[in-house]
Amino acid sequence: MKQGFLPICRKEMEDRGWSQPDFVYVSGDAYVDHPSFGHAIITRLLESLGYKVCILAQPDWRKRESIMEFGEPRLAFLVSAGNMDSMVNHYTVAKRKRRTDAFSPGGVMGKRPDYAVVVYCNLIRQVYKHTPVIIGGIEASLRRLAHYDYWSDTLKRSILLDSGADLISYGMGERSIAAIAEALDAGLSIRDLTYIDGTVCKVRDLSSVYDPVILPSYEDLKRDRINYAKSFYTQYCNTDPFSGRRLVEPYSDHCFVVQNPPSKPLSQEELDQVYSYPYMRTWHPSYQEAGGIPAIQEVKFSLVSNRGCFGGCSFCALTFHQGRILQTRSHESLLSEARQMTQDQDFKGYIHDVGGPTANFRQPSCKKQLTEGVCSRRQCLFPKPCKNMEVSHKDYVKLLRKLRDVPGVKKVFIRSGIRFDYVMADRDDTFLRELCMYHVSGQLKVAPEHIADSVLQKMGKPENSVYQSFVQKYEKINRQLGKKQYLVPYLMSSHPGSTLKEAIALAEYLRDLGVMPEQVQDFYPTPSTISTCMYYTEVDPRNMEKVYVPKNPHEKAMQRALIQFRDPKNYDLVLEALKREGRMDLVGFDRKCLIRPRKPKEKESGIVQKKPRKNPYASGPGERGARKSGKKKIIRNIHKKKA
User: Fold this and answer.
1) Which of 139, 353, 356, 602 is deepest in the core (most CB within 10 A)?
2) What is the value of pTM for the model shown?
3) Are 218 and 249 in contact, with CB atoms under 8 Å apart?
Protein backbone atom coordinates (compact mmCIF):
# COMPACT_ATOMS: atom_id res chain seq x y z
CA MET A 1 0.00 0.00 0.00
CA LYS A 2 1.33 3.41 -0.95
CA GLN A 3 1.68 6.02 1.79
CA GLY A 4 -0.27 9.20 1.06
CA PHE A 5 -3.78 10.27 0.15
CA LEU A 6 -5.73 8.45 -2.52
CA PRO A 7 -6.29 10.42 -5.76
CA ILE A 8 -9.13 12.97 -5.70
CA CYS A 9 -8.57 14.38 -9.22
CA ARG A 10 -7.33 13.16 -12.57
CA LYS A 11 -3.88 14.72 -12.12
CA GLU A 12 -3.32 12.86 -8.85
CA MET A 13 -4.44 9.64 -10.54
CA GLU A 14 -2.06 10.16 -13.45
CA ASP A 15 0.76 11.02 -11.05
CA ARG A 16 0.42 7.44 -9.80
CA GLY A 17 0.78 6.17 -13.34
CA TRP A 18 -2.84 5.04 -13.62
CA SER A 19 -4.86 5.48 -16.79
CA GLN A 20 -8.07 4.04 -15.31
CA PRO A 21 -9.18 3.32 -11.73
CA ASP A 22 -10.80 0.05 -10.71
CA PHE A 23 -13.27 1.86 -8.46
CA VAL A 24 -14.44 5.45 -8.14
CA TYR A 25 -15.84 6.19 -4.69
CA VAL A 26 -18.38 9.05 -4.84
CA SER A 27 -18.88 10.65 -1.41
CA GLY A 28 -21.15 13.36 -0.08
CA ASP A 29 -18.46 14.19 2.50
CA ALA A 30 -15.16 15.88 1.86
CA TYR A 31 -12.22 13.47 1.80
CA VAL A 32 -10.85 12.86 5.29
CA ASP A 33 -8.45 9.92 5.49
CA HIS A 34 -9.33 8.88 9.03
CA PRO A 35 -10.94 5.60 10.20
CA SER A 36 -13.89 7.48 11.71
CA PHE A 37 -15.02 8.20 8.13
CA GLY A 38 -16.64 5.37 6.20
CA HIS A 39 -15.15 6.31 2.85
CA ALA A 40 -11.63 6.08 4.30
CA ILE A 41 -12.14 2.54 5.64
CA ILE A 42 -13.72 1.14 2.47
CA THR A 43 -11.20 2.71 0.08
CA ARG A 44 -8.21 1.67 2.20
CA LEU A 45 -9.60 -1.86 2.41
CA LEU A 46 -9.91 -2.06 -1.38
CA GLU A 47 -6.44 -0.60 -1.76
CA SER A 48 -5.07 -3.30 0.57
CA LEU A 49 -6.63 -5.92 -1.74
CA GLY A 50 -4.70 -4.49 -4.68
CA TYR A 51 -7.37 -2.36 -6.36
CA LYS A 52 -6.86 1.13 -7.77
CA VAL A 53 -9.31 3.44 -5.99
CA CYS A 54 -10.03 7.13 -6.61
CA ILE A 55 -12.25 9.35 -4.46
CA LEU A 56 -14.69 11.79 -6.01
CA ALA A 57 -15.64 13.90 -3.00
CA GLN A 58 -18.67 16.18 -3.17
CA PRO A 59 -19.00 16.40 -6.97
CA ASP A 60 -21.18 19.19 -8.34
CA TRP A 61 -24.44 17.33 -8.92
CA ARG A 62 -25.64 20.10 -11.26
CA LYS A 63 -22.96 19.28 -13.84
CA ARG A 64 -22.63 15.98 -15.70
CA GLU A 65 -18.93 16.68 -16.25
CA SER A 66 -18.22 16.46 -12.53
CA ILE A 67 -18.90 12.71 -12.50
CA MET A 68 -16.47 12.22 -15.40
CA GLU A 69 -13.35 13.35 -13.52
CA PHE A 70 -11.68 9.92 -13.67
CA GLY A 71 -13.59 8.49 -16.61
CA GLU A 72 -15.33 5.12 -16.39
CA PRO A 73 -13.95 2.84 -13.66
CA ARG A 74 -12.94 -0.67 -14.66
CA LEU A 75 -15.18 -2.38 -12.10
CA ALA A 76 -17.74 -0.04 -10.48
CA PHE A 77 -18.81 3.24 -8.96
CA LEU A 78 -19.25 3.15 -5.18
CA VAL A 79 -21.67 5.80 -3.88
CA SER A 80 -22.33 7.09 -0.36
CA ALA A 81 -24.03 10.19 1.01
CA GLY A 82 -21.35 10.36 3.73
CA ASN A 83 -21.19 9.74 7.45
CA MET A 84 -24.72 11.13 7.90
CA ASP A 85 -28.01 10.83 6.08
CA SER A 86 -28.01 13.86 3.79
CA MET A 87 -31.44 14.97 5.01
CA VAL A 88 -30.40 14.87 8.66
CA ASN A 89 -27.26 16.73 7.63
CA HIS A 90 -29.30 19.45 5.94
CA TYR A 91 -32.39 19.88 8.13
CA THR A 92 -33.32 20.22 11.79
CA VAL A 93 -36.21 18.23 13.23
CA ALA A 94 -38.36 21.31 12.55
CA LYS A 95 -37.36 20.93 8.85
CA ARG A 96 -35.40 24.17 8.92
CA LYS A 97 -32.17 24.41 6.92
CA ARG A 98 -29.04 23.99 9.00
CA ARG A 99 -26.44 26.72 8.66
CA THR A 100 -23.29 24.61 8.65
CA ASP A 101 -22.07 21.23 7.46
CA ALA A 102 -19.27 19.81 9.60
CA PHE A 103 -18.30 17.36 6.85
CA SER A 104 -17.61 20.05 4.22
CA PRO A 105 -14.60 22.38 3.80
CA GLY A 106 -14.84 25.25 6.25
CA GLY A 107 -18.21 23.94 7.45
CA VAL A 108 -19.93 25.50 4.43
CA MET A 109 -23.45 24.22 3.77
CA GLY A 110 -24.65 23.27 0.29
CA LYS A 111 -21.83 21.06 -0.98
CA ARG A 112 -24.13 18.03 -1.40
CA PRO A 113 -27.73 17.63 -2.60
CA ASP A 114 -30.78 16.45 -0.67
CA TYR A 115 -31.20 12.67 -0.99
CA ALA A 116 -27.57 12.58 -2.09
CA VAL A 117 -27.35 8.88 -2.96
CA VAL A 118 -30.26 9.06 -5.40
CA VAL A 119 -28.99 12.27 -7.00
CA TYR A 120 -25.41 11.01 -7.42
CA CYS A 121 -26.57 7.70 -8.90
CA ASN A 122 -28.91 9.41 -11.35
CA LEU A 123 -26.03 11.66 -12.38
CA ILE A 124 -23.82 8.62 -13.03
CA ARG A 125 -26.57 6.95 -15.06
CA GLN A 126 -26.84 10.01 -17.32
CA VAL A 127 -23.26 9.40 -18.44
CA TYR A 128 -22.48 5.74 -17.79
CA LYS A 129 -25.51 3.62 -18.65
CA HIS A 130 -24.12 0.18 -17.94
CA THR A 131 -21.32 0.63 -15.40
CA PRO A 132 -22.08 -1.18 -12.12
CA VAL A 133 -23.15 1.16 -9.32
CA ILE A 134 -23.00 -0.03 -5.69
CA ILE A 135 -24.39 2.15 -2.93
CA GLY A 136 -23.60 2.03 0.78
CA GLY A 137 -23.17 4.09 3.92
CA ILE A 138 -25.79 5.15 6.44
CA GLU A 139 -28.24 6.70 3.94
CA ALA A 140 -28.41 3.68 1.66
CA SER A 141 -28.19 1.15 4.48
CA LEU A 142 -31.19 2.49 6.40
CA ARG A 143 -33.30 3.00 3.27
CA ARG A 144 -32.64 -0.45 1.81
CA LEU A 145 -36.31 -1.49 1.86
CA ALA A 146 -39.50 0.59 1.80
CA HIS A 147 -39.23 3.22 4.52
CA TYR A 148 -41.02 6.21 5.98
CA ASP A 149 -39.41 9.48 4.88
CA TYR A 150 -40.07 12.21 7.45
CA TRP A 151 -39.05 15.12 5.22
CA SER A 152 -41.57 14.35 2.47
CA ASP A 153 -44.01 12.63 4.88
CA THR A 154 -44.35 9.69 2.50
CA LEU A 155 -43.58 6.00 2.37
CA LYS A 156 -40.72 5.70 -0.11
CA ARG A 157 -39.61 2.71 -2.13
CA SER A 158 -36.31 0.95 -1.58
CA ILE A 159 -33.51 3.36 -2.40
CA LEU A 160 -32.20 0.69 -4.77
CA LEU A 161 -35.09 1.44 -7.12
CA ASP A 162 -35.13 5.23 -6.87
CA SER A 163 -31.36 5.48 -7.33
CA GLY A 164 -31.09 3.09 -10.26
CA ALA A 165 -28.13 1.41 -8.53
CA ASP A 166 -27.39 -2.29 -8.97
CA LEU A 167 -26.58 -3.30 -5.42
CA ILE A 168 -26.63 -2.04 -1.82
CA SER A 169 -23.83 -2.94 0.56
CA TYR A 170 -25.59 -2.42 3.88
CA GLY A 171 -24.29 -2.24 7.43
CA MET A 172 -20.56 -2.23 8.08
CA GLY A 173 -19.48 -3.13 4.57
CA GLU A 174 -15.97 -4.58 4.81
CA ARG A 175 -16.96 -8.20 4.12
CA SER A 176 -19.56 -7.46 1.46
CA ILE A 177 -17.49 -4.94 -0.50
CA ALA A 178 -14.53 -7.32 -0.60
CA ALA A 179 -16.78 -10.12 -1.91
CA ILE A 180 -18.33 -7.79 -4.51
CA ALA A 181 -14.92 -6.62 -5.71
CA GLU A 182 -13.62 -10.18 -6.01
CA ALA A 183 -16.67 -11.29 -8.01
CA LEU A 184 -16.54 -8.33 -10.41
CA ASP A 185 -12.80 -8.74 -10.88
CA ALA A 186 -13.38 -12.41 -11.74
CA GLY A 187 -15.69 -11.34 -14.57
CA LEU A 188 -19.09 -12.01 -13.01
CA SER A 189 -21.92 -9.75 -14.07
CA ILE A 190 -23.31 -7.40 -11.42
CA ARG A 191 -26.74 -8.92 -12.15
CA ASP A 192 -25.51 -12.30 -10.96
CA LEU A 193 -24.43 -11.02 -7.53
CA THR A 194 -27.65 -11.96 -5.78
CA TYR A 195 -26.13 -14.18 -3.10
CA ILE A 196 -23.68 -12.05 -1.07
CA ASP A 197 -24.43 -11.54 2.63
CA GLY A 198 -24.81 -7.90 3.63
CA THR A 199 -26.23 -6.86 0.26
CA VAL A 200 -29.59 -5.96 -1.26
CA CYS A 201 -30.30 -6.68 -4.92
CA LYS A 202 -33.24 -6.56 -7.31
CA VAL A 203 -34.44 -9.51 -9.39
CA ARG A 204 -37.13 -10.10 -11.99
CA ASP A 205 -38.26 -13.41 -10.50
CA LEU A 206 -37.60 -15.50 -7.39
CA SER A 207 -36.23 -18.62 -9.06
CA SER A 208 -32.70 -17.88 -7.82
CA VAL A 209 -33.72 -16.71 -4.32
CA TYR A 210 -33.22 -19.41 -1.69
CA ASP A 211 -35.67 -19.83 1.23
CA PRO A 212 -37.06 -16.27 1.35
CA VAL A 213 -39.49 -14.60 3.73
CA ILE A 214 -41.96 -12.69 1.57
CA LEU A 215 -42.84 -9.30 3.02
CA PRO A 216 -46.01 -7.37 2.14
CA SER A 217 -45.78 -5.73 -1.26
CA TYR A 218 -45.08 -2.02 -1.58
CA GLU A 219 -48.68 -1.47 -2.65
CA ASP A 220 -49.91 -3.27 0.48
CA LEU A 221 -47.63 -1.12 2.63
CA LYS A 222 -49.02 2.07 1.12
CA ARG A 223 -52.60 0.83 1.47
CA ASP A 224 -52.44 0.06 5.20
CA ARG A 225 -49.91 1.39 7.72
CA ILE A 226 -50.49 -1.65 9.92
CA ASN A 227 -48.97 -3.73 7.14
CA TYR A 228 -45.90 -1.51 7.31
CA ALA A 229 -45.63 -1.99 11.09
CA LYS A 230 -45.76 -5.77 10.64
CA SER A 231 -43.24 -5.69 7.80
CA PHE A 232 -40.87 -3.47 9.73
CA TYR A 233 -40.88 -5.73 12.77
CA THR A 234 -40.14 -8.73 10.56
CA GLN A 235 -37.12 -6.82 9.28
CA TYR A 236 -36.12 -5.88 12.81
CA CYS A 237 -36.22 -9.54 13.89
CA ASN A 238 -33.95 -10.51 10.99
CA THR A 239 -31.01 -8.19 11.58
CA ASP A 240 -28.82 -10.90 13.10
CA PRO A 241 -26.10 -12.43 10.87
CA PHE A 242 -26.56 -15.94 12.33
CA SER A 243 -30.35 -16.24 12.43
CA GLY A 244 -31.48 -13.57 9.96
CA ARG A 245 -33.56 -14.79 7.01
CA ARG A 246 -33.48 -13.63 3.41
CA LEU A 247 -36.26 -11.04 2.92
CA VAL A 248 -38.13 -10.24 -0.28
CA GLU A 249 -40.18 -7.08 -0.87
CA PRO A 250 -42.35 -7.30 -4.02
CA TYR A 251 -42.95 -4.23 -6.18
CA SER A 252 -44.63 -5.90 -9.14
CA ASP A 253 -44.86 -9.31 -10.79
CA HIS A 254 -41.42 -8.76 -12.31
CA CYS A 255 -39.64 -6.61 -9.71
CA PHE A 256 -38.51 -7.90 -6.32
CA VAL A 257 -36.05 -6.33 -3.89
CA VAL A 258 -34.10 -9.02 -2.04
CA GLN A 259 -32.28 -8.40 1.23
CA ASN A 260 -29.68 -11.07 1.92
CA PRO A 261 -28.81 -11.87 5.56
CA PRO A 262 -26.37 -9.48 7.28
CA SER A 263 -22.62 -10.01 7.02
CA LYS A 264 -20.93 -11.93 9.82
CA PRO A 265 -19.20 -9.75 12.44
CA LEU A 266 -15.47 -9.15 12.11
CA SER A 267 -13.13 -11.04 14.37
CA GLN A 268 -10.85 -9.04 16.66
CA GLU A 269 -7.91 -9.64 14.30
CA GLU A 270 -9.95 -8.44 11.31
CA LEU A 271 -11.14 -5.33 13.16
CA ASP A 272 -7.56 -4.57 14.21
CA GLN A 273 -6.55 -4.88 10.56
CA VAL A 274 -9.19 -2.33 9.52
CA TYR A 275 -7.68 0.23 11.89
CA SER A 276 -4.08 -0.52 10.91
CA TYR A 277 -4.23 0.76 7.33
CA PRO A 278 -1.91 3.72 6.54
CA TYR A 279 -4.48 6.46 7.10
CA MET A 280 -3.19 10.01 6.86
CA ARG A 281 -5.53 10.78 9.80
CA THR A 282 -6.48 14.24 8.53
CA TRP A 283 -8.23 15.99 5.66
CA HIS A 284 -6.86 16.22 2.14
CA PRO A 285 -4.47 19.19 1.78
CA SER A 286 -6.71 20.77 -0.87
CA TYR A 287 -9.11 21.81 1.93
CA GLN A 288 -6.49 23.66 3.96
CA GLU A 289 -7.23 27.08 2.48
CA ALA A 290 -10.95 26.71 3.25
CA GLY A 291 -10.19 25.97 6.89
CA GLY A 292 -10.23 22.17 6.85
CA ILE A 293 -13.07 19.82 7.79
CA PRO A 294 -14.66 20.64 11.20
CA ALA A 295 -15.96 17.08 11.78
CA ILE A 296 -12.48 15.75 12.44
CA GLN A 297 -11.98 17.84 15.57
CA GLU A 298 -13.98 15.52 17.84
CA VAL A 299 -12.55 12.28 16.46
CA LYS A 300 -8.93 13.04 15.59
CA PHE A 301 -7.73 12.19 19.09
CA SER A 302 -10.43 9.65 19.94
CA LEU A 303 -10.17 5.86 19.92
CA VAL A 304 -12.89 3.57 18.54
CA SER A 305 -12.72 0.48 20.76
CA ASN A 306 -15.89 -1.34 19.69
CA ARG A 307 -18.69 -1.77 17.20
CA GLY A 308 -22.27 -2.88 17.63
CA CYS A 309 -24.67 -2.27 20.50
CA PHE A 310 -27.03 -4.54 22.41
CA GLY A 311 -28.65 -1.56 24.17
CA GLY A 312 -31.69 -1.70 21.89
CA CYS A 313 -32.94 1.91 22.13
CA SER A 314 -36.05 2.27 19.97
CA PHE A 315 -34.97 5.59 18.46
CA CYS A 316 -31.53 4.32 17.39
CA ALA A 317 -30.75 2.72 14.02
CA LEU A 318 -27.67 0.83 15.22
CA THR A 319 -29.54 -2.49 15.22
CA PHE A 320 -30.13 -2.07 11.47
CA HIS A 321 -26.65 -0.76 10.70
CA GLN A 322 -23.95 -2.17 13.00
CA GLY A 323 -26.03 -4.88 14.62
CA ARG A 324 -26.30 -6.02 18.24
CA ILE A 325 -23.20 -8.25 18.42
CA LEU A 326 -20.20 -6.54 20.02
CA GLN A 327 -16.94 -6.49 18.08
CA THR A 328 -13.89 -5.14 19.87
CA ARG A 329 -10.35 -4.13 19.03
CA SER A 330 -7.44 -5.60 20.95
CA HIS A 331 -5.56 -3.62 23.60
CA GLU A 332 -2.44 -3.76 21.42
CA SER A 333 -4.26 -2.18 18.46
CA LEU A 334 -5.65 0.65 20.60
CA LEU A 335 -2.35 1.28 22.39
CA SER A 336 -0.55 1.43 19.05
CA GLU A 337 -2.99 4.06 17.79
CA ALA A 338 -2.65 6.02 21.05
CA ARG A 339 1.16 6.07 20.71
CA GLN A 340 0.74 7.25 17.12
CA MET A 341 -1.47 10.10 18.36
CA THR A 342 1.21 11.33 20.75
CA GLN A 343 3.50 11.95 17.77
CA ASP A 344 1.02 14.37 16.20
CA GLN A 345 2.14 17.98 16.57
CA ASP A 346 -1.40 19.03 17.51
CA PHE A 347 -1.76 16.46 20.31
CA LYS A 348 -1.89 18.18 23.70
CA GLY A 349 -1.88 15.06 25.85
CA TYR A 350 -5.63 14.47 25.93
CA ILE A 351 -7.38 11.45 24.42
CA HIS A 352 -10.91 12.73 23.92
CA ASP A 353 -12.74 9.40 23.95
CA VAL A 354 -12.33 5.64 24.16
CA GLY A 355 -15.56 4.01 23.08
CA GLY A 356 -18.01 3.45 20.29
CA PRO A 357 -21.81 3.37 20.07
CA THR A 358 -21.70 2.54 23.80
CA ALA A 359 -18.40 3.15 25.54
CA ASN A 360 -18.64 0.57 28.32
CA PHE A 361 -19.54 -2.41 26.12
CA ARG A 362 -16.41 -4.47 25.53
CA GLN A 363 -17.86 -7.95 25.09
CA PRO A 364 -20.96 -9.65 23.69
CA SER A 365 -23.81 -9.73 26.20
CA CYS A 366 -23.68 -13.55 26.32
CA LYS A 367 -21.49 -16.32 24.93
CA LYS A 368 -24.06 -17.76 22.52
CA GLN A 369 -24.10 -14.61 20.37
CA LEU A 370 -20.87 -15.44 18.55
CA THR A 371 -22.20 -18.83 17.41
CA GLU A 372 -25.99 -18.59 17.42
CA GLY A 373 -26.62 -14.85 17.26
CA VAL A 374 -28.80 -12.60 19.39
CA CYS A 375 -32.37 -13.35 20.44
CA SER A 376 -34.68 -12.11 17.69
CA ARG A 377 -37.60 -11.05 19.92
CA ARG A 378 -35.89 -10.33 23.24
CA GLN A 379 -33.53 -7.56 24.31
CA CYS A 380 -30.45 -7.93 26.51
CA LEU A 381 -31.08 -4.94 28.81
CA PHE A 382 -34.74 -4.07 28.31
CA PRO A 383 -37.13 -4.12 30.10
CA LYS A 384 -34.86 -5.87 32.63
CA PRO A 385 -31.30 -7.20 32.18
CA CYS A 386 -31.41 -10.75 30.81
CA LYS A 387 -30.45 -13.38 33.38
CA ASN A 388 -28.01 -14.84 30.83
CA MET A 389 -26.20 -11.54 30.29
CA GLU A 390 -22.56 -11.54 31.35
CA VAL A 391 -21.83 -8.15 32.91
CA SER A 392 -18.22 -7.11 33.29
CA HIS A 393 -16.13 -3.96 32.95
CA LYS A 394 -12.83 -5.69 33.75
CA ASP A 395 -11.42 -5.63 30.23
CA TYR A 396 -12.41 -1.97 29.76
CA VAL A 397 -10.82 -1.00 33.07
CA LYS A 398 -7.57 -2.76 32.09
CA LEU A 399 -7.58 -0.98 28.73
CA LEU A 400 -8.11 2.45 30.32
CA ARG A 401 -5.31 1.84 32.81
CA LYS A 402 -2.90 0.96 30.00
CA LEU A 403 -3.88 4.05 28.02
CA ARG A 404 -3.33 6.30 31.05
CA ASP A 405 0.23 4.96 31.25
CA VAL A 406 1.15 5.73 27.63
CA PRO A 407 4.01 8.29 27.65
CA GLY A 408 2.73 11.67 26.51
CA VAL A 409 -0.88 11.02 27.57
CA LYS A 410 -2.04 13.35 30.34
CA LYS A 411 -5.72 12.45 30.49
CA VAL A 412 -8.08 9.93 28.95
CA PHE A 413 -11.70 11.07 28.72
CA ILE A 414 -14.83 9.04 27.99
CA ARG A 415 -17.37 10.98 25.96
CA SER A 416 -19.24 8.17 24.20
CA GLY A 417 -22.50 7.19 25.83
CA ILE A 418 -22.28 5.24 29.08
CA ARG A 419 -25.09 2.72 29.59
CA PHE A 420 -25.89 3.42 33.20
CA ASP A 421 -28.19 0.38 33.44
CA TYR A 422 -25.26 -1.84 32.43
CA VAL A 423 -23.14 -0.12 35.10
CA MET A 424 -25.85 -0.78 37.69
CA ALA A 425 -26.04 -4.44 36.66
CA ASP A 426 -22.34 -4.82 37.51
CA ARG A 427 -21.83 -5.73 41.18
CA ASP A 428 -18.23 -4.54 40.99
CA ASP A 429 -17.99 -0.72 41.31
CA THR A 430 -14.35 -0.55 40.13
CA PHE A 431 -15.26 0.88 36.73
CA LEU A 432 -17.56 3.59 38.08
CA ARG A 433 -14.99 4.54 40.71
CA GLU A 434 -12.17 4.83 38.15
CA LEU A 435 -14.50 6.63 35.74
CA CYS A 436 -15.11 9.30 38.40
CA MET A 437 -11.46 9.42 39.44
CA TYR A 438 -9.75 9.62 36.05
CA HIS A 439 -12.08 9.95 33.08
CA VAL A 440 -14.61 12.71 33.84
CA SER A 441 -13.82 16.40 33.41
CA GLY A 442 -16.33 17.79 35.90
CA GLN A 443 -19.40 16.59 34.03
CA LEU A 444 -20.53 13.16 32.87
CA LYS A 445 -23.09 13.04 30.08
CA VAL A 446 -25.67 10.27 30.36
CA ALA A 447 -28.93 9.63 28.53
CA PRO A 448 -31.93 8.82 30.73
CA GLU A 449 -34.01 10.46 27.92
CA HIS A 450 -37.14 10.76 30.12
CA ILE A 451 -38.48 10.01 33.60
CA ALA A 452 -41.98 8.72 32.80
CA ASP A 453 -41.90 4.93 32.70
CA SER A 454 -44.65 4.81 30.08
CA VAL A 455 -42.46 6.83 27.69
CA LEU A 456 -39.29 4.96 28.63
CA GLN A 457 -41.03 1.71 27.75
CA LYS A 458 -41.64 3.00 24.21
CA MET A 459 -38.04 4.21 24.04
CA GLY A 460 -36.66 0.82 25.00
CA LYS A 461 -34.97 2.39 28.02
CA PRO A 462 -34.87 1.14 31.64
CA GLU A 463 -37.31 2.34 34.28
CA ASN A 464 -36.62 5.70 35.88
CA SER A 465 -35.77 4.01 39.19
CA VAL A 466 -32.63 2.54 37.56
CA TYR A 467 -31.41 6.00 36.61
CA GLN A 468 -32.18 7.36 40.08
CA SER A 469 -30.13 4.55 41.63
CA PHE A 470 -27.26 5.39 39.28
CA VAL A 471 -27.43 9.08 40.26
CA GLN A 472 -27.21 8.17 43.95
CA LYS A 473 -24.26 5.86 43.40
CA TYR A 474 -22.44 8.39 41.19
CA GLU A 475 -22.88 11.13 43.77
CA LYS A 476 -21.81 8.83 46.61
CA ILE A 477 -18.59 7.80 44.88
CA ASN A 478 -17.73 11.40 44.02
CA ARG A 479 -18.22 12.40 47.66
CA GLN A 480 -15.91 9.59 48.75
CA LEU A 481 -13.32 10.78 46.24
CA GLY A 482 -13.71 14.40 47.35
CA LYS A 483 -14.72 15.49 43.85
CA LYS A 484 -17.44 17.89 42.74
CA GLN A 485 -18.61 16.34 39.50
CA TYR A 486 -22.05 16.47 37.99
CA LEU A 487 -24.31 14.52 35.70
CA VAL A 488 -25.58 16.16 32.52
CA PRO A 489 -28.74 14.30 31.42
CA TYR A 490 -29.69 14.07 27.77
CA LEU A 491 -33.45 14.35 27.45
CA MET A 492 -35.83 13.87 24.55
CA SER A 493 -39.14 15.58 23.96
CA SER A 494 -42.11 14.49 21.83
CA HIS A 495 -41.16 10.82 21.57
CA PRO A 496 -44.08 8.53 20.67
CA GLY A 497 -45.99 7.81 23.86
CA SER A 498 -45.25 11.22 25.38
CA THR A 499 -48.30 13.41 26.04
CA LEU A 500 -48.27 16.83 27.68
CA LYS A 501 -48.91 15.03 30.97
CA GLU A 502 -45.58 13.18 30.73
CA ALA A 503 -43.83 16.34 29.52
CA ILE A 504 -45.07 18.23 32.61
CA ALA A 505 -43.91 15.38 34.85
CA LEU A 506 -40.44 15.71 33.30
CA ALA A 507 -40.49 19.47 33.92
CA GLU A 508 -41.40 18.86 37.58
CA TYR A 509 -38.50 16.45 37.89
CA LEU A 510 -36.10 19.07 36.51
CA ARG A 511 -37.60 21.64 38.89
CA ASP A 512 -36.85 19.39 41.85
CA LEU A 513 -33.37 18.72 40.48
CA GLY A 514 -32.72 22.44 40.14
CA VAL A 515 -31.33 22.30 36.60
CA MET A 516 -32.33 23.46 33.14
CA PRO A 517 -30.75 21.33 30.39
CA GLU A 518 -28.92 23.27 27.71
CA GLN A 519 -29.39 20.46 25.20
CA VAL A 520 -32.82 19.04 24.40
CA GLN A 521 -33.42 16.69 21.50
CA ASP A 522 -36.86 16.83 19.97
CA PHE A 523 -37.56 13.33 18.63
CA TYR A 524 -36.31 13.08 15.03
CA PRO A 525 -38.00 10.36 12.91
CA THR A 526 -35.07 8.99 10.89
CA PRO A 527 -35.33 5.89 8.67
CA SER A 528 -35.28 2.35 10.10
CA THR A 529 -35.93 2.82 13.79
CA ILE A 530 -38.74 1.36 15.89
CA SER A 531 -39.62 4.87 17.07
CA THR A 532 -39.97 6.14 13.50
CA CYS A 533 -42.23 3.18 12.73
CA MET A 534 -44.37 4.21 15.74
CA TYR A 535 -44.40 7.81 14.52
CA TYR A 536 -45.66 6.81 11.08
CA THR A 537 -48.07 4.00 11.98
CA GLU A 538 -49.13 5.13 15.50
CA VAL A 539 -48.74 1.56 16.75
CA ASP A 540 -45.86 -0.17 18.52
CA PRO A 541 -44.64 -2.80 16.01
CA ARG A 542 -43.44 -5.03 18.87
CA ASN A 543 -46.96 -5.65 20.18
CA MET A 544 -49.21 -3.74 17.73
CA GLU A 545 -50.67 -1.64 20.55
CA LYS A 546 -51.91 1.87 19.79
CA VAL A 547 -49.43 4.65 20.61
CA TYR A 548 -50.08 8.35 21.10
CA VAL A 549 -47.80 10.32 18.77
CA PRO A 550 -47.30 14.08 19.15
CA LYS A 551 -47.11 15.33 15.56
CA ASN A 552 -48.58 18.82 15.77
CA PRO A 553 -45.64 21.28 15.60
CA HIS A 554 -47.22 23.49 18.27
CA GLU A 555 -47.62 20.64 20.74
CA LYS A 556 -44.06 19.53 20.02
CA ALA A 557 -42.91 23.09 20.77
CA MET A 558 -44.79 22.99 24.09
CA GLN A 559 -43.20 19.68 25.09
CA ARG A 560 -39.77 21.02 24.29
CA ALA A 561 -40.43 24.30 26.12
CA LEU A 562 -41.49 22.44 29.27
CA ILE A 563 -38.02 20.89 29.55
CA GLN A 564 -36.55 24.42 29.49
CA PHE A 565 -39.34 26.07 31.45
CA ARG A 566 -36.99 28.57 33.10
CA ASP A 567 -36.14 30.21 29.79
CA PRO A 568 -38.23 33.43 29.56
CA LYS A 569 -38.85 32.97 25.84
CA ASN A 570 -40.68 29.71 26.61
CA TYR A 571 -43.13 31.32 29.08
CA ASP A 572 -46.16 31.48 26.78
CA LEU A 573 -45.75 27.88 25.59
CA VAL A 574 -45.30 26.58 29.15
CA LEU A 575 -48.35 28.51 30.35
CA GLU A 576 -50.47 27.20 27.48
CA ALA A 577 -49.41 23.62 28.20
CA LEU A 578 -50.26 23.96 31.90
CA LYS A 579 -53.67 25.44 31.06
CA ARG A 580 -54.45 22.61 28.63
CA GLU A 581 -53.65 19.97 31.23
CA GLY A 582 -55.42 21.75 34.10
CA ARG A 583 -52.15 22.19 35.96
CA MET A 584 -52.45 25.86 36.91
CA ASP A 585 -51.30 24.76 40.36
CA LEU A 586 -47.82 25.00 38.81
CA VAL A 587 -48.26 28.72 38.15
CA GLY A 588 -47.54 30.78 41.23
CA PHE A 589 -44.89 31.78 43.73
CA ASP A 590 -44.57 28.48 45.59
CA ARG A 591 -41.43 26.37 45.26
CA LYS A 592 -43.38 23.70 43.43
CA CYS A 593 -44.42 26.12 40.68
CA LEU A 594 -42.76 26.13 37.28
CA ILE A 595 -43.56 29.73 36.35
CA ARG A 596 -44.92 32.83 38.05
CA PRO A 597 -48.12 34.64 37.05
CA ARG A 598 -47.66 37.79 35.03
CA LYS A 599 -48.58 41.24 36.17
CA PRO A 600 -51.46 42.96 34.34
CA LYS A 601 -49.18 45.00 32.06
CA GLU A 602 -47.18 41.90 31.19
CA LYS A 603 -50.38 40.10 30.15
CA GLU A 604 -51.28 42.79 27.62
CA SER A 605 -48.15 42.49 25.51
CA GLY A 606 -46.56 39.28 26.71
CA ILE A 607 -43.46 41.13 27.93
CA VAL A 608 -42.64 43.35 30.88
CA GLN A 609 -43.53 46.96 30.05
CA LYS A 610 -41.06 49.39 31.52
CA LYS A 611 -42.26 52.81 32.65
CA PRO A 612 -41.06 55.64 30.40
CA ARG A 613 -38.23 57.60 31.94
CA LYS A 614 -39.49 60.93 33.25
CA ASN A 615 -37.67 63.96 31.85
CA PRO A 616 -36.85 66.37 34.71
CA TYR A 617 -36.94 69.35 32.39
CA ALA A 618 -40.39 68.73 30.96
CA SER A 619 -43.33 70.48 32.61
CA GLY A 620 -46.02 69.00 30.44
CA PRO A 621 -46.89 67.05 27.34
CA GLY A 622 -45.78 68.49 24.02
CA GLU A 623 -42.88 70.45 25.50
CA ARG A 624 -40.09 68.04 24.45
CA GLY A 625 -39.70 69.66 21.02
CA ALA A 626 -39.78 73.15 22.49
CA ARG A 627 -37.18 72.14 25.08
CA LYS A 628 -34.87 70.79 22.36
CA SER A 629 -35.37 73.99 20.37
CA GLY A 630 -34.52 76.07 23.43
CA LYS A 631 -31.33 74.07 24.05
CA LYS A 632 -30.24 74.69 20.45
CA LYS A 633 -30.76 78.46 20.90
CA ILE A 634 -28.64 78.45 24.07
CA ILE A 635 -25.84 76.60 22.29
CA ARG A 636 -25.93 79.07 19.36
CA ASN A 637 -25.77 82.05 21.76
CA ILE A 638 -22.75 80.52 23.52
CA HIS A 639 -20.96 80.15 20.16
CA LYS A 640 -21.76 83.76 19.27
CA LYS A 641 -20.29 85.03 22.55
CA LYS A 642 -17.10 82.98 21.96
CA ALA A 643 -16.83 84.40 18.46
Assistant:
1) 139
2) 0.90
3) yes
